[in-house]
């Protein structure tokens, strides 16, 4: 295997944390990085899976060789993993592969876009045979309650038909107050803190992909809302359709009370009232930013989730060539990130490190190196995003965004007059 001695600590930690959250285990693993531009793979540590010494490279690099190694039923699963890798989408799969010693092993593959290297994908491959055998053995002898107790993080199962929790491990019972033996708990109650549009997106992804990874707000039995990194899998057992939820609670530091947001001056308010176009509105807020003047340009993105696109209007020297109705796909956009992760704002410190398609299609070609985006929701549906842009990296941080939040808020009341009835125009299908 081609060895590369360097590995980014944060990326490595991210993989191991994801692995532990998904499997409840901390097994050694082969760590690798794929450069999707150069179409090459490098192995980043010295770990060897006994019986699969050179087989790991064959599995990940040689399609024909991988097919010979894989169990026939798992070839389509591995093909799905390869597709996700090339699409730079997070993925986790379990497959069976035969080594040179003739032994069929259970292997866990986890991958994600490298957070530090654009167009790279980082992953791990681990032997989880002992864990798989334990699950299979218990599955034939025990019920769902014992099934989930193999994991130390909060794990519970939901019956799709009844939408009730049917099994929860000790961590879920203690941390979330879920106990199916004592009372019924509906998944709707647990997920009540998440926007409906966000949940619909999750259900659609589960319908087609059978899995979903992301952030969820979980409401505990005491009414507390707990932010968690979640992994959800479709799971069939004894003819029942189930959803497997594996959670990792996120630790949030205390946040100081934010400073008051400046109110737009009377001249700015007068100009907003007389504005006749989106460009006019954007010009006003760009002209009335703080004296430090961190924004060189501004964009407004109109969101059409049901149509799968966004339409942007820009002002400032960087966007002088952007025409009206400049359209981009909704997938890969800032808006998708905001909806997917339930964000109230988004700061991108350096677009050159980005893995979002919209940054490479829109911001980087126009010289934008950092930006601050603020969403506008109407009836719980994302309608618009205003984006303050800078040609220098690291222009925006949590310490200096309050004035820009105030400018964005001053803009929202004037949008219906310019773009028309928001409810009629952009109600999702």
Structural class: alpha+beta
Q: How far apart are the first and last residues' alpha carbons, in Å?
A: 50 Å
Helix share, percent? 25-40%
Q: Could you say which overall geometry the principal axes of the C-alpha atoms support? A: globular
> How large is the count of helical segments?
16
Query: Biggest sheet: strands, sense, closure?
Result: 6 strands, antiparallel
Organism: Rhodobium gokarnense
Protein name: PAS domain-containing protein
Can I get a quick summary?
The chain is of the alpha+beta class and 429 residues long. It is built from 16 helices and 16 strands. α2 packs across α3.
Write the layout of secondary structure elements.
Layout: H1 9-23, E1 30-35, E2 40-43, H2 55-61, H3 63-69, H4 75-86, E3 91-98, E4 104-113, E5 120-127, H5 129-141, H6 144-148, E6 155-159, E7 164-168, H7 170-176, H8 187-190, H9 196-209, E8 211-219, E9 225-237, E10 240-249, H10 266-274, H11 278-287, E11 297-304, E12 309-315, E13 326-329, H12 334-341, E14 346-348, H13 357-363, E15 370-378, E16 381-390, H14 402-411, H15 415-419, H16 422-426
Can you describe this structure?
This is PAS domain-containing protein. InterPro entries: GAF-like_dom_sf (IPR029016). It comes from Rhodobium gokarnense. The protein has 429 residues and is of the alpha+beta class. The strands form 3 sheets. Strands 13-12-11-16-15-14 form a 6-stranded antiparallel β-sheet, sandwiched between helices. Strands 2-1-5-4-3 form a 5-stranded antiparallel β-sheet, sandwiched between helices. The chain has a 5-stranded antiparallel β-sheet with strand order 7-6-10-9-8. α2 packs across α3. The longest helix is centred in the first third of the chain and has 15 residues. The radius of gyration is 24 Å and the shape is globular. The N terminus and C terminus are likely disordered.
